[in-house]
Design brief:
By secondary structure, this protein is an alpha/beta fold. It has one domain (3-32, 58-218): Double Stranded RNA Binding Domain (2-Layer Sandwich). It contains 6 helices and 8 strands; from the N terminus they run αββββαβααβαββα. The protein has helices spanning 3-17, 64-84, 98-120, 138-144, 161-170, 208-218; strands spanning 21-26, 42-45, 48-54, 60-62, 89-92, 148-159, 178-186, 192-200. α1 crosses α3 and α2 packs across α6 (208-218).
Length: 224
């Protein structure tokens, strides 16, 4: 299933709920026990974020300035949340190493598959929460001396003035949608030990308050 098809399913789900919708999952096989893991370090991987504008014709055009602003807010809010919990965290900023870039992309691809499974149920997965980024994450453990990595993926869109006008006049959907997910990955095994997804038709990542609200939703159920 391609990203646009997942987006369509998410849009339908959000219209039915008319609010921010989250769903958190924790691995049941060898789950994380943070009480026993005290002293372990979390790596906050540079968030994979893109903000776009929905044109009159429904095309999503990325905005680099909106994206940079949102990424900054998200990183700061996640860092502040972990600090309040007393968790040692290291930010992995401006990922440029080819292997690490591929790991970020892999997380996005695996996360979209997990979203698909939540919506329609993959035959090989069903209710079995068994996902991994593979042994390649060991390089992050070695490079940054971390034990777990927190990956975040967010796509947010905003209607242009012309698209909004057409929506008001003709009743067509605005196309604006916020979709995101976060994963906690055990760098010793590559297993995703926690995953949470967020879909919403409201909120703005272009503002500090809006981004803070979205981060609160994204980190809902984080077992730390």
């Amino acid at each position: 299933m391609r990203y646009r098809e997942i987006l369509a399913l998410m849009a339908l789900s959000t219209m039915l709920s008319a609010c921010a919708n989250v769903s958190s999952n924790v691995a049941t096989s060898a789950p994380i026990n943070w009480t026993a893991e005290r002293g372990k370090k979390i790596l906050l991987i540079d968030p994979d974020v893109e903000l776009s504008e929905v044109t009159f014709g429904g095309v999503r055009e990325p905005h680099a300035d909106w994206t940079a602003t949102a990424r900054g807010f998200i990183k700061a809010d996640i860092g502040a949340t972990l600090t309040k919990k007393g968790i040692e965290a290291t930010s992995v900023d401006n990922v440029t190493d080819p292997h690490e870039v591929q790991l970020v992309k892999l997380h996005g691809a695996v996360g979209l598959s997990m979203l698909q499974n939540m919506m329609i149920g993959l035959p090989t997965k069903k209710n079995n929460f068994d996902w991994t980024l593979g042994p390649g994450v060991e390089s992050l453990r070695t490079h940054y001396a971390g034990d777990y990595a927190l990956f975040v993926y967010v796509r947010d869109s905003y209607s242009s003035g012309s698209r909004m006008a057409m929506s008001l006049l003709l009743g067509v959907p605005t196309g604006a949608m916020q979709i995101g997910f976060a994963s906690l990955v055990d760098l010793r095994t590559g297993r995703i030990v926690w995953f949470n997804r967020l879909i919403s038709s409201t909120g703005s990542l272009k503002t500090d308050k809006g981004a803070a609200d979205s981060v609160d939703n994204l980190l809902h159920g984080l077992p730390l």
